[in-house]
Amino acid sequence: MTKKTTGTKSKRYSDEFIRDALATWDRGRKEGKTAKVIAAEIGCHPSMLSYWRARNGGKPAGALAKTRLEVKAQRAKQKLNGHATKATAASTWQAESAAEVVALRRELASLREENELLTKMVRLVAKRDG
Questions:
Q1: Model's pTM, two decimal places?
Q2: Which of 15, 34, 94, 116 is most buried, taking the most CB atoms under 10 A from its CB?
Q3: Are residues 72 and 61 in the same domain?
């Protein structure tokens, strides 16, 4: 189990290292070891074990479910879905607003007709009485 690191501050671990780390974590948990103890044994931070497990879909070790590229693609897809959800919500709001505008215009037209009829009636009564 070898870790692959770059010259930057953050460490990069190879998929092989991650698979081995998860397998070691699985074995260690069966033996009653904590993530902190296991992480110290393999040379990573305990939170990385949880992160890798989550990235692996919560599945036990074995072949990693997702490579880094697959994770990036999934995140991009989630972002697009988030935007699609916002767009859908916006288009739903626009459709509801348009329907409300149509209903209000009909009501306005009806009230204008009623106003026009009442105005004519007042004129007729005024002429008759006047």
A1: 0.41
A2: 15
A3: no
